[in-house]
UniProtKB/TrEMBL annotation:
It comes from Stutzerimonas xanthomarina. The keyword Ubl conjugation does not apply. It holds the Pfam family B-barrel_PelB_C. Keywords: Membrane, TPR repeat, Transmembrane, Transmembrane helix. Coiled coil: none annotated. Residues 868-1170 form the PelB C-terminal domain. It comes from the Bacteria. TPR repeats lie at residues 654-687. This is Biofilm formation protein PelB.
Length: 1173
C-alpha cells in the first residue's frame, strides 16, 4: 500500500518449488487411480459412507441397474426403507425385482410399526407377496420371500417358495424339503406334508433318516386324517423298524384298524410280534384288531393269553368284560366287571355290573353292589327298585326291611325308599308297622289322595274305624272328586253309624256318575228310610232301572205304595208288566189293585187281589191288602169268611194283627177286635196312633172310662214328644177311624155328653201334629174326615187350606162369613190381590185395644205392604266409586199411591263424573230422571218406566216394562224388558253405555225360614252413539236362611253369579276405549253373606221406630279372576222430627267388576219423610 508502513512481502516458495510440488501430486494421482470400481458397493455390512459413495456412482451412471439393485439391497439391510423405495421406483417396471422389493418393503414397514398388524393388513401383504414372480429371483431373494411369507402368516406360500428353493439349490435340497414340510404342516396341509415326507424316504440312504421320515410321514398322514396312507407308509418300510419302534407299530396297527385296513394292521402286527414276541402291548393291540375285525372268539383267546403274561389294567379288564358279554359268556364277563370295580370303582361300571348281575339272577352280587353304592350316596329310583326286587326274589324280606330302614336313616329325603318300605310291609302283612310308616310319610312329604286311601284301608283291616275315618277326614272333601274316596268314606261312615256322612258319601258317588252296587243301594235305602223316605224310593227306582229283577221291582212297588206315590207307582206297574216273569211278582198284583182302587174301580181291585191270593197262597202281604180292601169298602160279607179262614195263620203273622183288629171292629165284634189290638200293642207299645185307634175300639166296646183315660194319657204323650210318624201311619189311623165309624154313630145316637167334645179334642190334637209334620195333603184329608163326621173346624184351619189351594171362592166366603181376626183378613185380602184394601184394614185395625201378638202381626203386614208401594219424599247426597271412576252428586225421589191400584215414583239426580278411568273423555255433570208407574192386577202387577239422562259426552232416553205374578203364597215370578236403560256393569258403562235386556226372576219359599231365588237375563250393550259393545247372559242364584226374623233380623245368604258376554270385534269410533274396558267378558263368583238389620236405613219409608241400622258382609271367590272378593255395607238411620229419617250409608267393595283391580264403594246421606197414610 502506498502510504502503508508495512515492508515488502517475502515469498515462502519459489516458482520452481511450486512446480516440483504440482508434479509430485500428479504423479501420485496417476499411480493411485483405479476407476469407478472404487465407489462400487462392497459385500461387507453397508454403512452410511458406502451408501453415499454408491449414490454418487449412480449419479454418474444412472442406467446401471445392477448397481441400483445392490444399492437397494444395502438400503434395505440398513433399514432405510424410504430411500430404498425411491430407488425401486426408478427400476424398470417390467423387472420382476420391482414387485419383490415393493412387497418386501411393505412387509418390513409393517413389522417396523409399534402397533399390532391387523388381520386385514396381513391379508393384503400376503396377496402382495403372492403377486411376486419367483422365476427371476435369486436364491437369497427366494429365502427372504419365504421368511416374509411366514411373517405375514402365509405358511402355504412359504412352503411353495421352499419347494422352489429345493429344486434350484441341490446342495441344500434336503434342508429346503424339511422347511417345506414344516411350512405345509403350519398351513394345516398335512396331506401335502405327508406326501413330501413319503418322497423324502426314497431319497435318503441312511436307515436312521428313513426311520425318522417314516415316523414323521406317519404322523402327518394321521394329522391329515388319512389313516390308511399312514398305515401304508409304515407297512412299506417295516424293514427299517425294530423292537424299539413299538409305539409307532402300535399306532400303525390302530391306524389300520381305524381305516378298516385289517390286512395292513395284521401284517404290521405280525412283524411287531416277530420283533417282540413277549410284548404285552402287541398282545393288547392284537386283541383290539380281533375286536375291530369282528373276530370275537379270537379276541377272547388273545385276552386269555394276555391274562397269563401280565397284570391286567382297567382298560383291558373292561374290554374283556365286554368281550365276555359279546361272546355269550356273561358269567365270566361279570367276573371281569367285578375285578374292574376293585381297580376302578366308577358309577357307570358299578351300574353295568349290577344290571348284568340282575340279568343273570345273581341277586347276591346285585344286592352287594347296590348296597355298597347306597353307603356312599343316595341311590337312583331304578337302583333302589332293583335292590328291593333282588331281596324279594332271593326271599329275604327281613334283610330288605333292615337295609331300607338303615338307608332311610342316612337318606330320609328319598321318597321312593319310603314307598318301597311301605310296600314291603304290605307284602309281609305288618299292619301296625304300616300305619306307623304312613304317619311318618305324611309328616315328611304329605300323602296323595290315593295313598291316603291305602292308609285308611290299613286301619280298616285293623278294625280301627275311627282312626281310618280321621285319616280320610283330614282332607277337604269338597275338593275331592275321586270315587274311591267317597266309597271308602261311605263304608266307614256306615261302620261308625254316622248316617249323615254315609248318606253324603253315597250321594256324591251318584253325582260322580258311579253306579251304585247292590250293597250301596241297600245301605242308602236303609238310611233314607230313616231320614228321607222319598229319597229311598228314588234309590229303589234307580236300582230297578239298572237291574230289572223281580226283587228290585217288589221293593220299589211296596215303598211307592207306602208313600202313596201314585205317579211312580203307575210307572213301576207299566214297566213291571213288561217283564217276562211279571205275572209271578206278587207286589205287582198288589200295586195294580191299589191303582184300581184309587181310580174308583173297586171291583177290579177286588178281582186282582183275589187272583193274587190264589196265585200266591203264601204271600201274607197280599192277604193283608185284601183284608184292608174289604175293610175300606165295608164289604162285611166277604170279610167274614176270610177272617175265619186265615185266623190260624194270623196268630203266626204279626202283619195281619192290625187288619184283624180293624176287621172285627168293622163287624162290631169289639171283644175280638180288642184282643187283636192287645196282641199288636204288646209287640209295638210305642205305636201311639194304634193306641189311639184302640181307644176308639174301647169306646165302641163300651169301655168309656178306659177309653177316656187312654186318650188323656195319649194326649200327654203327644204333648211331650215330637210327631215323627210317617204319612202311611196316619193313613192307617184314618182307616181305623173309618172302620170304627159305626161305633161312633152309635155313640152319637146315644147322645153321650162327652162323645163329640172328645172327638173334637182328638181332631184338634192330630191337626196340630200334622201341622208340625208339614204334611198339607194329609192335613186336607184329615179336615175332610172331620167334615164328614160333623166336627167343628176352626176358621184358621179353613183359611190355611184355602190359602194352600188358592181357593178364591173359599177365601171370599170366609171374608164374608166373618170369624177371622184382622190379621187373617189381611192375609186373605193379600191372597186375593186386594193389596190396597189389605193395607187399609191393617192400618185401621192397629189399636192399643188389640192383643200384643195381633198388633205385632198387623204391624208387620202393614209394613210389608207399604214397602211394596212406599209414599214419601227423599233427598240425598251420594258418592259412588267404581274403582277407576267416581260419581258424586245430589238425588231426589218422590213416590205416591193413586187410588187403589196405581203407584208412581220419580227419581231425579245431578251427579258429576271424575277419575282416571275417563281417559280423555269429559262427561262433566250428568242430569237424569226416571219415572215408574205400577198397577196392581189381583195377584199380579204390571208397570212401565221412562228414563232420560244427559251429559257433555251424550244423552240417553230409555224405557222399560215389568211385571210379576204371585204364584202361591211362597212363590212369585217377575219379568223385565228394558230398552236403552242405564248400565251398571262398570264405571265406563255407567257413563258412556246403555243396556237393552230381557230378564226373568223368581222367588221360592222352601220353608218359613228358607228361600231360594234366581234370575236370568239376556243383555245387549252399546255406546251412547249406538256402537255395539257386546251381548250375553247373566245368571244369579241365591239361597237364604233367616235365623231371626226381627229384633234385629239376621239372614244368611249364599249364591252364585255368572255372566258371559261376547264382546264386539274391532275398535270403537265414538269412544277411545275398547269394548273390554266397558264390559268384562266373563265374570263368575260364588259367595256367602250375612245381613243383620233393624229396619232398612235409607228406605223411602222408615219401618222401625226411633232408629234403624244395617250391617251386611259378603265374601266370595271370583273364579274368573282367581281372587277373593269381599264387600261390606253398613248404615244407620234415625228419626229427627216426626215421620222422617236421616240416614247415613257406607259401602265398600274390594274388587268391583271392571274396576281394574281397584276397590270401590258407595257413600250416601239421605233425608226422607213420609206422606199419605
Amino acid at each position: 500500500m502506498r502510504n502503508s508502513s508495512a515492508t515488502e512481502p517475502v515469498r515462502l516458495l519459489s516458482p520452481w518449488a511450486l512446480l516440483l510440488v504440482g508434479g509430485l501430486v500428479v504423479t501420485l494421482l496417476v499411480v493411485t487411480y483405479h476407476g469407478d470400481e472404487v465407489f462400487m458397493p462392497s459385500e461387507r455390512q453397508p454403512d452410511a459412507v458406502s451408501i453415499s459413495y454408491a449414490e454418487l456412482l449412480l449419479e454418474a451412471h444412472p442406467d446401471d441397474t445392477s448397481l441400483r439393485l445392490k444399492l437397494i439391497e444395502q438400503l434395505i439391510a440398513l433399514g432405510d426403507h424410504v430411500r430404498a423405495r425411491s430407488h425401486v421406483f426408478r427400476l424398470n417396471e417390467a423387472s420382476g425385482d420391482v414387485r419383490f422389493f415393493l412387497a418386501e418393503l411393505a412387509v418390513l414397514e409393517a413389522q417396523a410399526t409399534e402397533k399390532a398388524v391387523s388381520a386385514q393388513t396381513l391379508a393384503a401383504l400376503s396377496a402382495q407377496l403372492r403377486g411376486v414372480v419367483r422365476e427371476g429371483l435369486s436364491l437369497e431373494q427366494l429365502a427372504r420371500l419365504a421368511r416374509h411369507a411366514l411373517a405375514v402368516n402365509d405358511p402355504s406360500l412359504a412352503a411353495q417358495v421352499y419347494l422352489d428353493l429345493a429344486e434350484r439349490d441341490e446342495a441344500r435340497r434336503q434342508q429346503w424339503f424339511g422347511e417345506a414340510v414344516t411350512a405345509h404342516l403350519a398351513a394345516g396341509e398335512t396331506g401335502t406334508a405327508a406326501r413330501l415326507l413319503s418322497g423324502m424316504i426314497a431319497r435318503v440312504d441312511s436307515a436312521d433318516d428313513r426311520q425318522r421320515y417314516v415316523s414323521e410321514a406317519f404322523s402327518a398322514y394321521l394329522a391329515a386324517d388319512q389313516g390308511e396312507q399312514a398305515a401304508t407308509v409304515v407297512h412299506a418300510n417295516l424293514d427299517v423298524l425294530d423292537a424299539a419302534d413299538g409305539a409307532l407299530l402300535e399306532a400303525a396297527v390302530k391306524a389300520g384298524i381305524g381305516s378298516q385296513r385289517y390286512d395292513l394292521a395284521a401284517e404290521i402286527l405280525a412283524r411287531w410280534r416277530l420283533l417282540d414276541p413277549e410284548g404285552v402291548t402287541a398282545l393288547r393291540s392284537e386283541m383290539q384288531l380281533r375286536l375291530a375285525a369282528g373276530q370275537l372268539e379270537q379276541a377272547w383267546e388273545v385276552g386269555q393269553q394276555l391274562a397269563n403274561v401280565a397284570p391286567q389294567p382297567a382298560e383291558t379288564l373292561e374290554t374283556k368284560a365286554k368281550l365276555g358279554e359279546w361272546t355269550g359268556r356273561p358269567s365270566e364277563a361279570l367276573g371281569y366287571w367285578l375285578k374292574l370295580l376293585q381297580q376302578q370303582d366308577g358309577p357307570q361300571v358299578r351300574e353295568h355290573a349290577w344290571r348284568l348281575a340282575a340279568q343273570l339272577f345273581d341277586f347276591d352280587n346285585t344286592i352287594r353292589l347296590l348296597a355298597g353304592a347306597g353307603e356312599s350316596r343316595q341311590l337312583s329310583d331304578a337302583e333302589l327298585d332293583a335292590l328291593v326286587y333282588s331281596h324279594g326274589q332271593r326271599g329275604t324280606p327281613e334283610q330288605a326291611e333292615r337295609w331300607l330302614r338303615q338307608y332311610l336313616s342316612a337318606h330320609p329325603d328319598h321318597s321312593l325308599a319310603w314307598e318301597r318300605l311301605q310296600q314291603l310291609l304290605e307284602q309281609t302283612q305288618q299292619l301296625e308297622a304300616q300305619v306307623a310308616l304312613w304317619a311318618e310319610r305324611d309328616r315328611r312329604f304329605g300323602v296323595s289322595l290315593e295313598q291316603r286311601l291305602a292308609w285308611a284301608h290299613v286301619h280298616w283291616e285293623l278294625f280301627d274305624f275311627q282312626t281310618a275315618w280321621a285319616v280320610l277326614d283330614a282332607v277337604d272333601r269338597q275338593q275331592v272328586s275321586e270315587p274311591a274316596y267317597w266309597l271308602l268314606r261311605a263304608e266307614l261312615a256306615w261302620a261308625l253309624e254316622r248316617d249323615e256322612d254315609a248318606m253324603e258319601g253315597y250321594q256324591r258317588l251318584q253325582a260322580l256318575g258311579v253306579a251304585n252296587s247292590d250293597t250301596a243301594d241297600e245301605r242308602l235305602i236303609t238310611l233314607y228310610e230313616r231320614h228321607a223316605p222319598a229319597r229311598a224310593l228314588d234309590v229303589m227306582m234307580a236300582s230297578w232301572e239298572r237291574k230289572r229283577t223281580p226283587a228290585n221291582l217288589t221293593r220299589a212297588l211296596q215303598w211307592a205304595m207306602q208313600l202313596d206315590d201314585l205317579p211312580r207307582l203307575r210307572l213301576l206297574v207299566e214297566q213291571g208288566l213288561q217283564l217276562p216273569e211279571g205275572e209271578r211278582v206278587g207286589a205287582l198284583w198288589s200295586a195294580r189293585a191299589r191303582l184300581a182302587m184309587q181310580a174308583g174301580g173297586q171291583a177290579e181291585a177286588e178281582r186282582l187281589l183275589v187272583e193274587a191270593v190264589a196265585r200266591f197262597p203264601h204271600a201274607d202281604a197280599v192277604k193283608e191288602q185284601l183284608l184292608w180292601h174289604y175293610i175300606d169298602t165295608g164289604n162285611k160279607s166277604a170279610l167274614t169268611p176270610l177272617l175265619q179262614r186265615w185266623e190260624p195263620l194270623a196268630h203266626k203273622r204279626s202283619s195281619l194283627w192290625l187288619p184283624y183288629a180293624t176287621g172285627y171292629l168293622l163287624l162290631n165284634r169289639n171283644e175280638l177286635a180288642l184282643q187283636w189290638f192287645d196282641r199288636f200293642l204288646r209287640r209295638n207299645p210305642e205305636d201311639l196312633l194304634v193306641q189311639a185307634a184302640y181307644a176308639d175300639a174301647l169306646d165302641n166296646a163300651g169301655y168309656f172310662d178306659r177309653a177316656l183315660r187312654l186318650r188323656r194319657h195319649l194326649a200327654g204323650l203327644f204333648d211331650g214328644r215330637p210327631a215323627t210318624a210317617e204319612p202311611d201311619t196316619y193313613r192307617t189311623y184314618l182307616r181305623l177311624l173309618s172302620a170304627s165309624g159305626a161305633g161312633i154313630e152309635m155313640v152319637l145316637r146315644l147322645e153321650r155328653p162327652d162323645a163329640r167334645p172328645m172327638l173334637q179334642i182328638w181332631f184338634d190334637q192330630f191337626s196340630e201334629q200334622l201341622e208340625r209334620l208339614n204334611q198339607p195333603a194329609l192335613k186336607d184329608e184329615w179336615l175332610g174326615w172331620a167334615r164328614r163326621n160333623g166336627l167343628r173346624i176352626d176358621r184358621y184351619a179353613e183359611l190355611q187350606q184355602a190359602l194352600r189351594a188358592h181357593n178364591a171362592s173359599e177365601l171370599e166366603r170366609l171374608l164374608t162369613g166373618g170369624g177371622l181376626d184382622p190379621a187373617q183378613r189381611v192375609e186373605a185380602l193379600q191372597q186375593l190381590g186386594a193389596s190396597h184394601r189389605a193395607l187399609s184394614e191393617s192400618l185401621a185395625a192397629l189399636s192399643p185395644d188389640q192383643p200384643d201378638a195381633l198388633q205385632h202381626q198387623l204391624r208387620g203386614q202393614a209394613l210389608a205392604l207399604q214397602a211394596r208401594h212406599p209414599q214419601g219424599l227423599q233427598i240425598g247426597l251420594r258418592r259412588q266409586d267404581f274403582g277407576t271412576l267416581e260419581l258424586r252428586g245430589q238425588t231426589a225421589e218422590i213416590a205416591r199411591q193413586f187410588g187403589r191400584d196405581w203407584h208412581a215414583s220419580a227419581l231425579f239426580s245431578r251427579q258429576r263424573y271424575s277419575g282416571p278411568g275417563l281417559s280423555d273423555a269429559s262427561p262433566g255433570v250428568e242430569r237424569s230422571a226416571e219415572l215408574q208407574l205400577t198397577r196392581e192386577l189381583g195377584p199380579a202387577w204390571l208397570g212401565a218406566a221412562l228414563e232420560i239422562s244427559d251429559h257433555d259426552e251424550g244423552d240417553r232416553q230409555g224405557a222399560g216394562v215389568f211385571g210379576g205374578l204371585q204364584l202361591t203364597d211362597t212363590d212369585s215370578l217377575e219379568f223385565h224388558a228394558d230398552w236403552h236403560r242405564q248400565a251398571e256393569e262398570s264405571g265406563l258403562a255407567r257413563a258412556f253405555a246403555r243396556r237393552d235386556s230381557v230378564a226373568i226372576s223368581a222367588t221360592h219359599g222352601l220353608t218359613p225360614r228358607d228361600q231360594f231365588s234366581w234370575s236370568l237375563a239376556q243383555q245387549r250393550f252399546s255406546t251412547l252413539d249406538g256402537e255395539a259393545l257386546g251381548h250375553g247372559r247373566q245368571l244369579n242364584l241365591e239361597f237364604s236362611h233367616a235365623l231371626f226374623f226381627e229384633g234385629p233380623s239376621w239372614t244368611l245368604r249364599s249364591g252364585l253369579t255368572h255372566a258371559a258376554y261376547r264382546l264386539a270385534d274391532g275398535p270403537l269410533h265414538s269412544v277411545s276405549q275398547e269394548p273390554a274396558d266397558y264390559l268384562q267378558e266373563r265374570f263368575g263368583q260364588v259367595y256367602v253373606a250375612s245381613t243383620w238389620r233393624r229396619g232398612f236405613p235409607g228406605a223411602l219409608n222408615r219401618e222401625t221406630p226411633q232408629y234403624s241400622w244395617l250391617v251386611d258382609v259378603l265374601a266370595g271367590w271370583q273364579w274368573t279372576e282367581q281372587q277373593v272378593g269381599y264387600a261390606i255395607n253398613a248404615g244407620v238411620g234415625t228419626r229427627l222430627l216426626g215421620d222422617d229419617e236421616l240416614a247415613f250409608i257406607l259401602g265398600y267393595q274390594s274388587a268391583p267388576r271392571n274396576g281394574d283391580g281397584e276397590p270401590g264403594g258407595t257413600l250416601s246421606l239421605t233425608y226422607s219423610t213420609r206422606f199419605g197414610r
